[in-house]
Each structure stands twice: as C-alpha cells, then as structure tokens.
C-alpha cells in the first residue's frame, strides 16, 4: 500500500476511526505533516483540530539520529540504550534539549498565537501524525497529553509505523490505529507518492479552518 498523499492517508484513517470516540472528540495533530492528515480526519468525522508539538532530539554531529524527544512542558523521553552506545549521558545533550525547547515555543506562538489550550480534560483525544519511525517523538506527545488533560480515551492514529515500534506505542494509548506496519521500513516518505514538505503557512491555514474553540 502506498498513499497518494497525506490527505489520502487521512481519509483512510478516518474510515477506521468512525465511532472510536463515544464522548466528544478532539484531534491533536503533530506539525507539520501530521496536520494535513489530521485536518482530513477532522473534516471526515466533523471533529475540531488542534496541535501538539513534540520535537526530536538528534544526536550530536548527526541530528538525523534520534536519541530522544522533548514535549511542550519540557518532559524528555530518551533512548537510553542508544545514549549508552554513543557514550552519552543526558547532561551531555542539555544544549540540544534547550534548542528544541525554544523551537517548540516558537512554533506554538507561530501556529496557535498566545492562546491557552481549551480544557480538553476527560475528552476522547486522537493524536495524529503522518507516520512514525522510532516512536520516541510521539511517545513524548502522548505522555504530555496524559498528564495535562487526563483524557477519557487516548487514541493514536497514523498511516504507517514499523513493526518494531508498535509494542512501545501500544503501551502508551488506549487504542492504536495503524493502516500499515511494514517490516521493510526505511522512512515514512517511502509510503507516499507525494510527500512534499508542508509549509508553516499550510499548518496555520488548516488550523484556522478546523480549530477547536474553548
């Protein structure tokens, strides 16, 4: 299976999510690509859209290698096995963590302005991204959501994730919806015909169209 684009993936996910939320639902999408997927689910299921913004922490001198992730309240999730292999401790990457904390703050203001989150406490929350590799970034997001909102039900919905990430992800949610879990996984983009970069402007516009109200 290959998705035409993120909107196509969102439509297919929406079909699997029909009826998943018995209580009033909310979609929290991960920018940037996850917002396009989430906006399509939002349209199909008539659910409001908002954002959750975790950030990957890349290894020193090799930022593409994820050694962990950071979420909006500063909570970090580290791959301690990889840190050990690289001969690193958490204190060694404190500067990288701070860089990503500032980037989260920048994106929050850029995308959401200075508005506080509505009270999503006790609701059914669907977390959406356009795909998952290691899973650490989305795990950071899920833990922040659990702590902040204590949802009645927490669902993770993604088009594609590798088989070896599913065990980690299932432990963090009440329901996991994944359309594909291939064993031969190299990158999320290999499962899309159109995987062009999503712009900040697109994120802002989609959020404006489908934004939740307090």
UniProtKB/TrEMBL annotation:
Q: Which UniProt keywords apply?
A: Glycosyltransferase, Transferase
Query: Which species is this UniProt entry from?
Result: Desulfofundulus australicus DSM 11792
Q: Name one GO molecular function term.
A: glycosyltransferase activity
Q: Which CDD domains match?
A: PRTases_typeI
Q: Does the keyword Glycosyltransferase apply?
A: yes
Pfam families assigned = Pribosyltran
Read off the lineage from the record.
Bacteria, Bacillati, Bacillota, Clostridia, Eubacteriales
Q: Does the keyword DNA damage apply?
A: no
Name-wise, this protein is: Predicted phosphoribosyltransferase
Domain Phosphoribosyltransferase, which positions? 12-176
């Amino acid at each position: 299976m290959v998705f035409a684009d993120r909107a196509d993936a969102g439509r297919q996910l929406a079909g699997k999510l029909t009826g998943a939320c018995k209580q009033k639902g909310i979609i929290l999408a991960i920018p940037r690509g996850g917002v396009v997927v989430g906006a399509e689910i939002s349209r199909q299921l008539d659910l409001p859209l908002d954002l959750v913004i975790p950030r990957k922490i890349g290894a020193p001198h090799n930022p593409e290698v994820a050694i962990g992730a950071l979420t909006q309240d500063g909570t970090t999730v580290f791959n301690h096995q990889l840190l050990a292999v690289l001969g690193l401790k958490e204190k060694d990457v404190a500067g990288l963590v701070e860089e990503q904390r500032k980037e989260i703050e920048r994106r929050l203001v850029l995308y959401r302005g200075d508005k506080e989150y509505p009270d999503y406490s006790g609701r059914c929350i669907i977390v959406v991204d356009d795909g998952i590799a290691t899973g650490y970034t989305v795990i950071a997001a899920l833990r922040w959501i659990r702590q902040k909102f204590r949802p009645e039900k927490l669902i993770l919905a993604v088009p594609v994730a590798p088989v070896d990430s599913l065990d980690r992800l299932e432990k963090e949610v009440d329901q996991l919806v994944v359309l594909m879990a291939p064993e031969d996984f190299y990158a999320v983009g290999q499962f899309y015909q159109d995987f062009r970069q999503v712009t900040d402007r697109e994120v802002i516009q989609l959020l404006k169209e489908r934004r939740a109200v307090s």
